[in-house]
Design goal:
With 199 residues, the protein is mainly alpha-helical. It contains nine helices and no strands. Helix 4 runs parallel beside helix 7 and helix 7 packs across helix 8. It comes from Kushneria phyllosphaerae. It holds the Pfam family TetR_N. Keywords: DNA-binding, Transcription, Transcription regulation.
Length: 199
């Protein structure tokens, strides 16, 4: 039997805590999740939690980072199925908004996340999305597909529109009804960047 290194054991402990926290935060919300119950679920102590994440808020930040990164990856994969860069960008934004219907995403990322961690635009996962959107817009501008525009400003506004639409869907009493309205408005707003909407 191969003996695992300390680094491997620490990585496994961190992964187990995040997995348990995802489950606890999804079931009970951030406020209702007990750290003692969570650590007991994976056979660890509060000390392990504090060592890896500092506190409960730090644990939530790690969980949000993981889920939001997964959301971005899923949305990107959907976008990549399109035949051109513009439709890829639109479908990626729409897919991100649609993921707001997922109960785990609603509760952890879109409801508890902003109330505990603050402005989503400052989250590391959102900053990576911003860079990816900027790259896509630069390519679209090089291809004369979109109007001359400040790339960072346009990327921030597009990403902000998608995030705020997702927040609206998640916080709505009728998320399925709101979804269609949000996606339609997102696409209409984004279309203002196009040189020729029929291209």
């Amino acid at each position: 039997m191969t003996r695992r290194s300390r680094a491997e054991m620490l990585k496994e402990t961190r992964a187990n805590l995040i997995k348990a926290a995802r489950s606890a935060f999804a079931e009970k919300g951030y406020a209702g999740a007990s750290m003692d119950d969570l650590t007991a679920r994976v056979g660890l102590t509060r000390g392990a939690l504090y060592h890896h994440f500092g506190d409960k808020r730090g644990l939530l930040a790690a969980v949000v980072e993981e889920i939001d990164s997964d959301m971005a990856m899923q949305a990107h994969e959907i976008g990549q199925r399109q035949t051109n860069s513009w439709e890829a960008l639109m479908k990626e934004g729409e897919a991100y908004i649609e993921l707001a219907l997922d109960p785990e995403i609603q509760r952890i990322v879109l409801l508890d996340g902003p109330s505990v961690l603050g402005d989503p635009a400052q989250w590391p996962s959102q900053n990576r999305c911003l860079q990816a959107t900027m790259t896509t817009l630069e390519r679209l501008m090089d291809e004369s597909f979109i109007k001359p525009v400040d790339i960072e400003a346009a990327a921030r506004l597009l990403n902000g529109a998608a995030m705020n639409a997702a927040l609206w869907v998640a916080g709505s009493d009728t998320p399925e009804k709101v979804l269609g309205r949000a996606i339609h408005a997102f696409r209409q707003l984004a279309s203002g960047l196009r040189i020729s909407p029929d291209r």
